[in-house]
Automatic annotation (TrEMBL), chain A:
Organism per entry: Sphingomonas vulcanisoli
Top-rank EC class of the record's enzyme: oxidoreductase
InterPro entries according to UniProt: Ald_Oxase/Xan_DH_a/b, Ald_Oxase/Xan_DH_a/b_sf, Ald_Oxase/xanthine_DH-like, AldOxase/xan_DH_MoCoBD1, AldOxase/xan_DH_MoCoBD2, AldOxase/xan_DH_Mopterin-bd_sf
Name listed for the protein in its UniProt record: Xanthine dehydrogenase YagR molybdenum-binding subunit
PANTHER family: ALDEHYDE OXIDASE 1-RELATED (PTHR11908:SF132), XANTHINE DEHYDROGENASE (PTHR11908)
SUPFAM superfamilies from the UniProt entry: CO dehydrogenase molybdoprotein N-domain-like, Molybdenum cofactor-binding domain
GO molecular function: xanthine dehydrogenase activity
Keywords: Molybdenum, Oxidoreductase
One Pfam family hit: MoCoBD_2
Annotated EC: 1.17.1.4
Domain Aldehyde oxidase/xanthine dehydrogenase a/b hammerhead: 61-175
From TrEMBL, chain B:
Protein name (record): Xanthine dehydrogenase YagS FAD-binding subunit
Coiled coil: none
Keyword annotations from UniProtKB, A to Z: FAD, Flavoprotein, Oxidoreductase
UniProt cross-references to SMART domains, sorted A to Z: CO_deh_flav_C
Molecular functions per Gene Ontology: xanthine dehydrogenase activity
Length: 777, 324
């Protein structure tokens, strides 16, 4: 990462700030009675400053190496052929012409692939990373339309791509379940998520609904979505004897290394996976068939392999978000208090994965109600395994929930913001736990004022400029705080006062390395120029998934523990000749490149002085984060209020969104610049979810028919308006740094806010996404 | 991509004589190269004609002669085009992206092929255009972007060009050079309806090359509308587009040009609408009647039936705006 150091020196606006007071050690954990992380209220350090990304110059200059840019000696290029049937077996596969094609090194099929175990299915053990519980290229069976059936290795990518087209395959087809209607008719099962049934009941919700004086009860549909990170999925892979080296585009390097070791029957420490830069993750940059096939082909060829999926290949091999059919019913009393909150429905998955889209998650904590009925049923389709995609559950669940709340507000003649606040719970509505920090009302009030909510047309369809009908909508954004077990970090402190943090975390473009350089600098009382944050490599400690918006908390808790170990060791080294003599770790803080007594910052000794006297060039400590006990004591959720102005063309039905605002309550924001970008990125993805994204899955043969960025629509620049983002910046006293991750929340609530604005503009309620113009004609 | 030879033609005559049976003329390559990557097109030879006629000639009679190798961007930015033929400039700018328009040629734009997903899916889908007699998976499949006019049991694919909609409205004439010599053909007659043979898309003879496009003068074309409706603000093909120019005298329609994109299996000149409009009062009632006349024979499929109403509304709105 020395290039990061180099780049950092040139970062525009690099902050020279150092802490003005000593920062004490953070608590062991965040259980009741514990003290909050002292850094969370720190106002004078790097945290909270709009530092530009430390990797910015590398990316602008084209020198940040991505997975498909590592050139290895003797490397060959892979092209993948995909099945064209949904279910059955390969009857014949003729690779002779491909093998004879210029530059071809080999063609791998189930007939000659190395023997491999299944990739352990994600969730089946702590480091399992597999998207599907299937062997890869071990037999002639076909489980989805688009499954890899052959890999061509050639001296150039073009030669491999051409040879792939010369492979001839015939199939014996089996009957497949491809339509959602057929799948539902075949029956549904209870959806299970993280080992728990997606089901909750409090009271008798159906009876309460029936008895309620005010109610809504409607069905909402959301389609399949595919991952479209700009960086294509890729890996550059080499074997050295039994040691496997993978340059990956990954949001879970430790999981990938462990899982690949199981696939190839080698020790975990024989696999090294690194991923210095990732061009977008969103839940899609995990372990799919291509890394396994690349490693298998490299083994077969005895040469390093670069495997980069084509855009079509990403659609064929990497799962996306599955479709949902949701019912939301709300009963309310005369004052608007919810007496019944029902959110149920069906989602499709496969028989070989474990990822029902958990769309009821937002309804488990956003509102209070006298009774609840929440349930996710699953049905099975013969398709590529669906997977996580930004805010799994909440992104599409908030569309249904927040549309329904808006419908109820309209039916009752109440401002939707007031209806939401009337039903703001004072404790977790299902678990009964206190909230760790929840300032939803402030987010709403601040957002409403800044957006000009009072100017919303009171009557739907009443405001028009020329052909354009104008409306405003609002919806709640929400995503939980997560912190998974497994976090660990190493700190190396050198005599010249430089610190390096090593942790197997991930930088996918959201600013992780920048924000944690800031945090570490503040914690250690160093200027950021003297801190290097190294990540994205299994040679570093920690099992840190960059998912579930948990990475920030996981890194934070890991660095806190390492920091504690560092201070303990420094005090030992300081010994009796130091001004710090006799002080215990919790009696000192880091300040001005050294340690100081909390009670008397005159008692200070620099790191350089301590290490010099101890005749040490450096001090290395490593520690693991404690288990996430905070989640057992508090209900921890982030929230936001999303405001949207929509314009709907009365002639053509076209929808334009000229204005959006997100007002978030997500704890302390570590870096407003990268944070704002992350919120905005999520909101843009939400705009795509609302207006255009839809995977065209042909139910006749299970084939995805729009596997390209020209046919699968995501917003273009012209679709994206100025997006205003504000936040409460109120720290969560029960999380590291007072922060909660913000990776997912931006996408949530947006689709409902758009749908609600479209309703306000036109009087038409669209309950199936995307909101395309034909639905408004 | 199947291996091929590449040669750059110095002029039309050598291009034509140098193009063998399995050769293709290469313009900007923005569509052909895509199709080659997908192995839908597998020419053995490419004859690069981007070095040929690149002039936009404003002739004394007010007409234009546009070299086939003129880039889309150059045509859209040309002063005479913008002043006297604004439909052409606006239609071009409504299509593709800046980068693609910088590469794409006028001749290539006319001969671009449909973006039907089933046509593109060489390995996994049936397509009569790609493989005559194979069947058409678009008929009952994803056909939101497909045609409602000029369709057949064999094919419902749209011609995707925006520029061609403006050109057919302008009665453009295509200049050709082939092994048998030179000839011209009206653009409205260049593309064929699919009927039973969607694989035969144009009236071009084998080896025939588009050398230029002639656009006759049209006085009332200075005030014209190209309106395109699609599923996002930019970089998407038309669901429906309307090219319109209207000549009104004493409250009656003296002349009119109307063409539709996104709805036809070929660039669609709305002859029925025009016939209904000529001589009729310039009122919403007439406009609506004209729209109904053109769409009377439209046929909606699984996903695109909405285009019938949308096209009618857009025709009426465009004419009303021009009449205002």
């Amino acid at each position: 990462m020395s290039m990061v150091e180099d780049a950092k020196a040139t970062v525009q606006g690099a902050l020279q700030t150092v802490m003005k007071t000593a920062v004490a050690l953070a608590p062991d954990n965040w259980i009741p009675g514990g003290i909050p992380d002292p850094i969370m209220r720190q106002q004078h350090g790097s945290i909270g400053k709009a530092l530009s990304r430390i990797d910015g110059p590398l990316k602008v200059g084209g020198t940040a190496p991505f997975a498909a840019e590592f050139a290895l000696e003797g490397m060959v290029y892979a092209a993948v052929a995909f099945s064209t049937i949904a279910k059955g077996r390969i009857a014949t596969i003729d690779t002779a012409a491909a093998e004879a094609s210029p530059g071809v090194v080999l063609v791998m099929t189930y007939k000659n692939a190395p023997r491999m175990e299944k990739v352990p299915l994600f969730g089946s053990s702590p480091k399992a990373a597999g998207g599907a519980d299937l062997t890869i290229m071990q037999d002639p069976s076909v489980h989805w339309n688009g499954q890899p059936i052959a890999v061509v290795l050639a001296e150039t990518q073009e030669q491999a791509d051409h040879a792939k087209t010369l492979i001839h395959v015939t199939y014996d087809e089996d009957p497949a379940t491809l339509s959602f209607a057929d799948a539902k008719a075949a029956g549904t099962d209870q959806g299970m998520f993280m080992g728990e049934p997606l089901h909750a009941e409090i009271g008798k919700a159906e009876e309460a609904l029936a008895a309620a004086p005010h109610k809504v009860d409607a069905a909402y549909l959301t389609p399949r979505h595919n991952h479209n990170a700009i960086e294509l999925h890729a890996a550059t892979i080499a074997w050295d004897g039994d040691a496997l080296r993978v340059h990956d585009a990954s949001q879970l390097v430790a999981h990938t290394a462990w899982s690949l070791s199981k696939v190839f029957g080698i020790a975990e420490d024989q696999v090294r996976v690194s991923s210095p830069f990732v061009g977008g993750g969103f839940g899609g940059k995990c372990l799919w068939d291509h890394q396994v096939l690349g490693a298998a082909a490299a083994k077969l060829a005895g040469r390093p392999v670069r495997i980069m999926l084509s855009r079509e290949g990403v659609y064929r091999v990497v799962g996306g978000r599955t479709l949902t059919e949701q019912r939301v019913a709300i009963g309310a009393d005369a004052s608007g208090k919810f007496t019944a909150l029902i959110h149920t429905g069906i989602t499709a998955m496969t028989s070989h994965n474990a990822m029902p889209e958990p769309f009821i998650l937002p309804t488990m904590s956003v509102y209070g109600a006298d009774s609840f009925l929440l349930d996710v049923r699953v049905t099975h389709i013969d398709m590529l395994a669906n997977t996580f995609m930004r805010a799994p559950g909440e992104s599409v669940g908030t569309f249904a929930l927040e549309s329904a709340v808006d419908e109820l507000a309209a039916a009752m003649g109440i401002d939707p913001i007031e209806l939401k606040l009337i039903n703001e719970p004072d404790k977790d509505p299902l678990m009964g736990l206190p909230f760790s920090q929840r300032d939803v009302e402030k987010a709403y009030r601040d957002g409403a004022e800044r957006f000009g909510w009072t100017d919303r047309p009171k009557t739907p369809g009443s405001r028009r400029e020329g052909e354009w009908l104008i409306g405003m909508g609002v919806a709640t954004a929400t995503y939980p705080y997560h912190r998974m077990s497994g976090g660990a970090a190493r700190i190396t402190l050198t005599r010249d006062g430089h610190a390096t943090v090593d942790i197997a975390a991930h930088e996918m473009g959201m600013g992780t390395a920048t924000a944690h350089t800031q945090v570490t600098a503040d914690r250690l009382g160093l200027p950021i120029e003297q801190v290097v944050f190294r990540y994205g490599d299994t040679i570093f400690p920690g099992v840190v998934l960059a998912g579930g918006s948990q990475q920030t908390a996981s890194i934070g808790a890991s660095v806190i523990e390492a920091h504690k170990a560092l201070v303990t060791e420094l005090l030992k080294l300081a010994g009796n000749d130091s001004p710090l003599a006799g002080l215990k770790p919790d009696e000192v803080g880091c300040f001005d490149a050294g340690l100081a007594a909390l009670e008397d910052d005159g008692r200070h000794e620099s790191y350089a002085s301590i290490l010099s006297r101890a005749q040490r060039d450096e001090l290395v400590v490593e520690a693991a984060a404690p288990p996430p006990l905070e989640l057992q004591h508090w209900s921890m959720h982030s929230h936001g209020a999303v405001f949207v102005e929509a314009r709907v063309n009365a002639v053509t039905g076209e929808v334009r969104v000229p204005r959006m605002l997100g007002s978030f309550d997500c704890g302390r924001i570590l870096n407003p610049k990268t944070g704002r970008s992350q919120f905005r990125g999520g909101m843009i993805m939400g705009l795509g979810l609302a207006l255009m994204e839809e995977t065209e899955f042909d139910e006749r043969n299970g084939r995805i028919m729009n596997p390209s960025l020209s046919d699968y629509h995501v917003p273009v620049h012209l679709d994206v308006p100025e997006i205003d983002v504000i936040w409460t910046d109120i720290p969560d006293p029960h999380s590291p740094m007072g922060a909660r991750g913000i990776g997912e929340i931006g996408i949530t609530g947006v689709a409902a806010a758009v749908a609600n604005a479209v309703f306000n503009a036109t009087g038409k309620r669209v309950r199936d996404l995307p909101i395309t113009l034909d639905k408004l004609l | 991509m199947t291996p091929f030879t590449y040669a750059r033609a110095a002029d039309a005559a050598t291009a034509v004589s140098g193009a063998g049976a399995n050769a293709k003329y290469l313009g900007g390559g923005t569509n052909l190269v895509d199709l080659m990557r997908e192995t839908i097109e597998r020419p053995e030879a490419l004859v690069d004609v981007t070095g040929l006629a690149q002039a936009i000639e404003a002739r004394a009679d007010g007409s234009l002669l546009i070299g086939a190798a003129v880039k889309n961007t150059a045509l859209a930015e040309d002063r005479t085009v913008r002043r006297d033929f604004p439909l052409i400039a606006r239609a071009i700018l409504a299509g593709a992206s800046g980068q693609i328009r910088n590469m794409a040629t006028v001749g290539g734009n006319i001969l671009q092929r449909t973006r039907c997903a089933y046509f593109y899916d060489n390995e996994g889908s049936r397509c009569n255009k790609r493989q005559p007699g194979q069947g058409c998976d678009a008929l009952d499949g994803f056909n939101r972007n497909h045609a409602i006019l000029g369709t057949s049991h064999a094919c419902i694919a749209t011609h995707p060009s925006d520029m061609c909609i403006a050109l057919v409205a302008h009665d453009a004439i295509v200049h050709l050079e082939g092994r048998a010599g030179k000839r011209t053909i009206p653009l409205t007659d260049l593309h064929r309806l699919p009927e039973g043979h969607p694989e035969i898309e144009t009236m071009l003879e084998p080896g025939e090359l588009i050398t230029a496009i002639e656009v006759p003068a049209l006085g009332f074309g200075r005030r014209a509308i190209y309106r395109k409706v699609r599923d996002r603000s930019s970089y998407a093909f038309a669901l429906v587009s309307v090219a319109a120019a209207l000549d009104i005298e004493d409250g009656r329609v003296r002349d009119v040009r109307l063409a539709l994109g996104g709805v036809g299996t070929k660039p669609w000149r709305a002859w029925q609408s025009e016939a209904a409009l000529r001589g009729a009062p310039a009122t919403e009632v007439s406009f609506r009647r004209a729209a109904e006349a053109e769409l009377a024979n439209a046929k909606g499929y699984r996903e695109n039936g909405f285009k019938i109403e949308l096209a009618k509304r857009m025709i009426v709105a465009a004419l009303q705006e021009l009449a205002a």
